[in-house]
User: Fold this.
Amino acid sequence: MKRIIYGVGCFLIALFFTVGFLITYQLTDLKDRIYALEETNASAKQQVSVPAVNYKNKTFVLEHYQDGILQKESFKLHSYGTDKVVFRQEEAPAKNAGYQLQVEEGYIVVYENSQNQVFEYTDIPLESLPKELQGEVLLGKQIKTTDELYNFLENYSS
Assistant:
């Protein structure tokens, strides 16, 4: 009988040590994982996401149709972070004055701002303009006066 009690006692002691070593191993492994995650998180916080291009002075254009007419609204980047981006709307140019250059079928078309209708179809292909000016025209280049419009047309017509 004593042998059975000693045998069960030895078995329980061995079981106790085995479970103790297993729990210790699991806790050490868990601590290592937490440490690795903390290092990864700290390095991620140190990395600052900087865009390749400075968007601070760029104009973003939102185009939408209202009553069948294409409307364009200009925005500038005000601030940005990891959780949000803030755009601030620019003041729209007066609709009653000036002209807008747009592209239709590869050619420049002049729209009158006051009536939002075609003022003049031109034979100036978009490809004949300098790259920077092509971008402005694609975004709807504004021209304020008739003199500026005719100067533009004289400079770029063939």
In short: The mean pLDDT is 81. The beta strands are 59-66, 69-80, 85-89, 99-104, 107-112, 117-125, 141-143. The longest strand covers residues 69-80.
